């Protein structure tokens, strides 16, 4: 009649839970006899109960599905089957073999009703753990006569002591060893689903369940597993690191997923795809998984609910997969049922198709028609509107239906009454920039939207992350919306310590290009971005790097340390650059006069290798870069000259640029120049003033250096070129004024900015002596860093050559030399020395 001490494991053997233990058959030995009476067992299972008393009491199993009591336990105290020196009895048996001992209890009378087997554990005259027994509960409940039994819990078996008599408290059982089960403990399907849903230790619990039960999981378990892992990993701070560390586990999950696809429901396929995308699954496992999902989904597309289809396609696109056959099939299946789609479903469809660049004009028009409703737009989520517009813009879908949608959305923000139907503040930063970018890309003129967006963004600027700031100014620049105050605020916000380190390569490139294109000066921003770019140089893709350098050159913002780092890092990987990237990069170096011999040498080889893929404007740009910086590239010019058959594709701008580049580089290829002349004449009507100036310099080179009169342009066109060059505006610098004042003290006959009949101008001319004094600032010399000037640029040398060919004696006064002269006497002596160098010593 006393309460029983805990002697049976209420936890799980080898990490299995209580429900798993109930899944097994077992023999139980009670106090005393060799075989006693039998008790009940959990629903659906059979068990043998050995009670107290007789040598062999009756025993019986309980029928499946019932919890019953059995024969009363036999009479008085008994003794253990196990020898006394072991001090233990069998607490849990499997297939008749004792595998989990429990402590020997004091022999005593244990008559009365049979024990009942609880959810986990056992009870005599009571329930063990969660199972309720006769006359009380075991564990937390009261024992017979008010005595409280001890708890037995945890993993493995426990060794406990006997409980006290009536009204006394039994001691807690102590922890025992995990029993060695013959195989993994298995949950039934319902229990496994519950375990996955309630995984108490997050990702670790899910992986443990996968390890123990993966082979028997059905599609419900697998889809639930992916769904729960996706939820936990979607916002994981180091998702990529976690996925890399658990690559084997994820590959195993992919394999189990593949095994159940044949019988998988549309919802299961959608959940698996969506969960895998949220997990960030990449590489070969992702490709294998999504290909299989796409294959199995195509045959069931008509059975997909709107949300399931939209989520699956979104996930495939998010994972960077394409699945063209699936998308084509979905584009045909979806339109008749679009009226059943919610705003978010429609948005996900458009976003998915746009992300994988899969054209579906009929589907897009059908979606635009549904969304082109004021009531729909007023109720739709801001994210749905923004993503839908982004998708239409990304796919350049500018049909009447889609443009009507853009106009309707733009009108939502107009102040027609006390409050517009929608406000920009409804849109989170990412949603706002997506919408602004979409309006910019489709060239939908909605200035009110950009004015409102600029004002709202300034107010909420602290909520914008680095990527949002970059996308915001990028969108405004594309739309041609200057908004100086917005650009000023974004520049200041970008330089804050909480933002600048978070600008990734693409964000840096987009930000700088936006300021360069919008002609918004932000020198401190360019300095900060140059430092950020150097730290992330390895992250830059060729296009991002080329665009970043282009922005520095367009903004005339020097970044010597960044350019030096690029010049060192790029040559070994130049083969990964496309023609446009190569030409834009070299153009930037040339404009900023930044020397990079190794880069230009490597680029010559790569340009020749890819020459057939260069567009006319890219060929012109790269030749201009070599001519402008003065780096010799004879093999490249020869390769271009040999491809004269493609010259008919060139426009006026490209023809004049190439003519100037051949002249500056002194690349003498008469046959090519003859073909070039022919097409220049054909494009005469398209030549702008800048083109005519370039052609005039080329003509002077042909006439005075090459001396091939047959290659000269017709006289009327040459006259136009010379006139354009003579009218070309010049702006003397302060430095030039200082040099002029000193020259005037040495030579009474001087003239500033003398324009020759042939077109070139001279900074300070001494006509009677035919001396041309050229005051050369920093942009006339090649630099490798701050204050490190070396040789003149190709452009500067070309002008000196032309002046010399026209009979003048050029004298160069570099700014970095002049600035070191501290007094008039030294400046006068310096000028006299320069004049002697070109004229020789004075005659006696």
What features would you describe in this structure?
It contains 35 helices and 14 strands. It is of the alpha/beta class and 844 residues long. Strands 9-10-11-14 form a four-stranded mixed beta sheet, with helices on both faces. It has a two-stranded parallel sheet with strand order 1-2. Helix 2 (189-197) runs parallel beside helix 4, helix 25 (597-609) packs parallel to helix 27 and helix 28 packs parallel to helix 30. It starts with 17 loop residues before the first helix and ends in a 5-residue tail after the last helix. Mean pLDDT is 81; it is low at 1-184.
Features of this protein?
elongated, two-stranded parallel ribbon, 14 strands, disordered N terminus, alpha/beta, 4-stranded mixed beta sheet
Lateral arrangement of strands in the main beta sheet: 9-10-11-14
Q: What spatial form do the alpha-carbon principal axes imply? A: elongated
How many helix segments?
35
Strand content: 5-15%
The secondary structure category is: alpha/beta
Describe the oligomeric state of these chains in a short phrase. Answer: single chain
Low-confidence stretches: 1-184
The count of strands amounts to: 14
Q: Helical residue percent?
A: 40-55%
- Alpha-carbon distance between the termini? 141 Å
Q: Mean of the pLDDT scores?
A: 81
Describe the largest sheet.
4 strands, mixed
Instruction: Please state the CA-atom Rg, rounded to the nearest Å.
Output: 42 Å
